[in-house]
């Protein structure tokens, strides 16, 4: 990416003509209010060719909800979450408590780029998942960290298939998504974690925030028998974020999967599977901050926002954009304080 045309005092037209065509922020004197522009995540530069990726963090949208047996709509989340992300500036998140800006260089120096969406082949989830796995593999091959915006929670299995290094998986979710493959059903959002847990490079699975009374006892038994660490909401409140992650070694490679329904029902009107007694913002943030500080986070996803179900202000998408931006900032700060 180029910073040509950003120098003060240049003729605006000349500056515009010299701009890199992938530059999403435009001339330095633009206001770029949240409702203006073509939305990439946080207005990061668009990377049209993942194979040529040169950034640390690569946003990949997965507008896919064919894994939702109940209400569809999560396919619209990557675009709407990107729109809400524009409400944060490009200079990093300011944290009033520490009076500091989190990862101020994330967007402006090109550490983060937006690679757009995985191509979706409607009614052919195998083909879509293949595209997703390939995109993740390509990002990792370029030394980048995938930041995946779903879509429903079925996508985490094909994401993990794109990794070949050993990873510990941390799932924040009201539900275990540990359903058995039965009656030829395998691609729903309620099955991905049983499947990814069986991948040879997945070293451990930690499921935090589990509380739904729709949980099946057989899934709990199977997950525990397979070595999963299940941290229910009462357990999380007892242990805190540090305790919930204490069994994962310092510095371990960790992949984090965040289902928006880990948050309390009151926070997520635009989520089809919302449950009571979930996490507050500071509780979920605390887990992500702890993970970013203690581990080498090698990628993460944020899933299950359903914009057609959301209230008019789009608060669930806004919460999604904030969660992603804040976790990204924490990882980026750890990588380069
Ligand atoms: Mn889930």
Element order: H for helix, E for strand: HEEHEEEHEHEHEHEHEHEH
**How large is the count of helical segments?**
9
Largest sheet properties:
9 strands, parallel
Indicate the CATH topology. Arginase, Chain A
| Tally of discrete structural domains | 1
Distinct ligand kinds: manganese (II) ion
Arithmetic mean pLDDT: 93
Number of beta-strand segments: 11
End-to-end separation in angstroms reads 23 Å
What top-tier CATH class fits best? Alpha Beta
Helix- and strand-based class? alpha/beta
Low-confidence stretches: 1-8, 16-21
Notes on the protein architecture:
The chain is built from 9 helices and 11 strands. The chain has helices at 12-18, 77-85, 125-141, 156-161, 192-197, 217-225, 233-244, 281-294, 315-335, and strands spanning 45-46, 57-62, 93-95, 100-102, 112-117, 145-150, 167-172, 202-210, 229-232, 253-259, 296-303. It has a 9-stranded parallel sheet with strand order 1-5-2-6-11-10-7-8-9, sandwiched between helices. A two-stranded antiparallel sheet has the order 3-4. It has 337 residues and is of the alpha/beta class. 30% of the residues lie in helices and 18% in strands. It has a single domain (12-334), classed as 3-Layer(aba) Sandwich (Arginase, Chain A). The structure holds manganese (II) ion.
What structural keywords apply?
18% strand, binds manganese (II) ion, alpha/beta, Arginase, Chain A, 337 residues, disordered N terminus, 9 helices, two-stranded antiparallel sheet, 30% helix, nine-stranded parallel sheet
């Amino acid at each position: 990416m180029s910073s040509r045309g950003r120098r003060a005092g240049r003729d605006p037209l000349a500056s515009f003509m010299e701009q890199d065509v992938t530059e999403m922020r435009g001339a330095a004197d633009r206001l770029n209010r949240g409702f203006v522009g073509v939305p990439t995540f946080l207005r990061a530069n668009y990377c049209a060719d993942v194979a040529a990726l040169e950034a640390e963090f690569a946003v990949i949208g997965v507008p896919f909800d064919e894994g939702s047996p109940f209400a569809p709509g999560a396919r619209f989340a990557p675009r709407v979450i990107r729109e809400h992300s524009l409400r944060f500036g490009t200079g990093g998140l300011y944290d009033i408590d520490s009076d500091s800006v989190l990862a101020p260089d994330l967007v402006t120096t090109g550490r983060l780029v937006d690679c757009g969406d995985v191509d979706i082949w409607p009614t052919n989830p195998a083909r879509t998942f293949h595209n997703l796995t390939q995109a993740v593999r390509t990002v990792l091959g370029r030394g980048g960290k995938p930041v995946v915006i779903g879509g429903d929670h079925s996508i985490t299995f094909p994401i993990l298939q794109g990794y070949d290094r050993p990873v510990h998986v941390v799932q924040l979710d009201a539900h275990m998504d540990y359903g058995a493959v039965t009656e030829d059903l395998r691609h729903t959002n309620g099955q991905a974690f049983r499947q990814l847990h069986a991948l040879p490079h997945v070293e451990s699975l930690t499921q935090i925030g589990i509380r739904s009374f729709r949980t099946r006892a057989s899934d709990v038994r199977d997950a525990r028998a397979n070595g999963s660490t299940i941290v229910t909401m009462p357990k999380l409140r007892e242990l805190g974020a540090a305790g919930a992650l204490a069994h994962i070694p310092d510095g371990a490679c960790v992949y984090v999967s965040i289902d928006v329904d880990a948050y309390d029902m009151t926070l997520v009107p635009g989520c089809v599977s919302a449950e009571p007694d979930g996490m507050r913002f500071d509780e979920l943030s605390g887990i992500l901050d702890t993970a970013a500080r203690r581990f080498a986070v090698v990628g993460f996803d944020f899933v299950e926002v359903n914009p057609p179900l959301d209230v008019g202000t789009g608060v669930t998408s806004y919460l999604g954009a904030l969660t992603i931006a804040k976790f990204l900032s924490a990882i980026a700060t750890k990588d380069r304080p």
